[in-house]
Design a protein that fits this description.
30% of the residues lie in helices and 21% in strands. The protein is globular, with a radius of gyration of 22 Å. The strands form 3 sheets. Strands 2, 3, 4, 5, 6, 11 and 12 form a 7-stranded antiparallel beta sheet that branches. The chain has a 5-stranded antiparallel beta sheet with strand order 1-14-13-7-8. A hairpin with a 2-residue loop joins strand 7 and strand 8. The protein has 369 residues and is an alpha+beta fold. The chain starts with a helix and ends in a 27-residue tail after the last strand. It has 2 domains: 78 residues, no CATH class; 226 residues, PPM-type phosphatase domain (Phosphatase 2c, domain 1). The protein is built from 9 helices and 14 strands. The longest helix has 22 residues.
Length: 369
């Protein structure tokens, strides 16, 4: 049965009064029995998502092995006409190490925000933890309130970032703690809706990447002062860019990023809180994981190295721990935080031993000159 035929049949009531839910349950159950009988990688099902009429091996569904055994999201699978696995929060891996810093100013969150939207976020504070703490405490609620009014998740995230930035400014003005007046933070937030729609928003240099077909697909671009478009905005606003002794560009000799939440002393110099966003439709046949990382990891390991290490790990929890520890072993002195979210193709790209570059920079990362 082709995917199109399957969807048409699922939308109506099937033979003998079998409803949509029953039909899909029957189909999935039958297919799983075939999988157990024939084993992974064999043409054991009549599904052909590309409508070619040819039998499709089970690995094309992303169900490669039983290391991440997730149930099927029935409503989403029926709506999109393809098998969509459920992402269980219990399978998500996360790690945050303090490194050589006096305190850990990184924050991260993973939660089931609404019935059909999962929330992932990393915040890397600088100049104190006040800004990162504020985002950690309130960003999710701002987004949750906005999704009730707006269906476009890119617009939701953009507005939430700007609203949180304004709320933080008000909070710091009323706070007796003057030391946090110039605090700021990166923010990289990912929303997964219906197990298939992934939307990412980011300010600063914390990153999001997708493991697709064994390769790292970058979902964010760092907001560094040496980016032409970012540098031009800083200069037009009256700010300037300098380079420190390590060759790192800084806004007004202080901040190594051009977008952030907080850093209010530089807001009139072109530092903004408006995020860059990206929306992508997941293909669970090819997409193995989503990874969110702070610059304690990014500064010392490139995206493909991170992807290669994750592909060698048994599960996302092991992957998160290995990446955070490996960044410190390579010489990172910053806080190192990572979230690893498994998708349908987890385990498909096991990969061989990765070859790492010995030309990496063994200097401490940091945003302040």
């Amino acid at each position: 049965m082709s995917a199109a035929s399957f969807v048409r049949l699922a939308r109506c009531r099937g033979p003998r009064g079998l409803g949509c839910r029953g039909l899909l349950l029957y189909t999935v159950a039958t297919s799983r029995r075939h999988l157990r009988t024939f084993g992974p990688g064999l043409s054991s099902t009549r599904f052909d998502p590309d409508s070619s009429g040819r039998p499709t091996p089970w690995d094309s569904f992303g169900i490669w092995d039983n290391r991440i055994d997730e149930p099927i999201l029935l409503p989403s699978s029926i709506r999109y006409g393809k098998i969509i696995p459920k992402v269980s929060l219990s399978k998500v891996g996360a790690a945050s190490l303090i490194g050589q810093r006096k305190e850990n100013e990184d924050r991260y969150q993973v939660s089931q925000m609404t019935e059909n939207i999962i929330y992932f976020a990393v915040f890397d504070g600088h100049g104190g933890s006040e800004a990162a703490d504020f985002c950690d405490n309130y960003m999710e609620q701002y987004i949750k309130d906005l999704v009730v009014q707006e269906d476009n998740l890119e617009l939701v995230l953009t507005r939430a970032f700007l609203d949180v930035d304004k709320a933080l400014q008000k909070h710091l003005r009323l706070s007796p703690n003057a030391s946090g007046a110039n605090a700021g933070t990166t923010a990289t937030v990912a929303l997964l809706r219906d197990g298939i729609e992934l939307v990412v928003a980011s300010v600063g240099d914390s990153r999001a990447m997708l493991g697709r077909k064994g390769k790292a697909l970058k979902l964010t671009v760092d907001h560094h002062p040496d980016r032409k478009d970012e540098k031009e905005r800083i200069k037009k606003s009256g700010g300037f860019v300098t380079w420190n002794s390590l060759g790192q560009p800084n806004v007004n000799g202080r901040l190594a990023m051009t977008r952030s939440i907080g850093d209010f002393d530089l807001k009139n110099m072109g530092v903004i809180a408006q995020p860059e966003t990206r929306r992508i439709k997941l293909h669970h046949v090819n997409d193995a994981f989503l990874a969110l990382t702070t610059d304690g990891i990014n500064f010392i390991m490139n995206s493909q190295e991170i992807c290669d290490v994750i592909n060698q790990c048994h599960d996302p929890k092991e992957a998160a721990q290995r990446i955070s520890e490996q960044s410190l072993q390579y010489g990172s002195e910053d806080n190192s935080t990572i979230i690893v979210v498994p998708f349908g193709a987890w385990g498909k790209q096991k990969g061989s031993d990765a070859s790492f570059s010995f030309s990496r920079s063994f200097v401490s990362s940091g945003r302040w000159a």
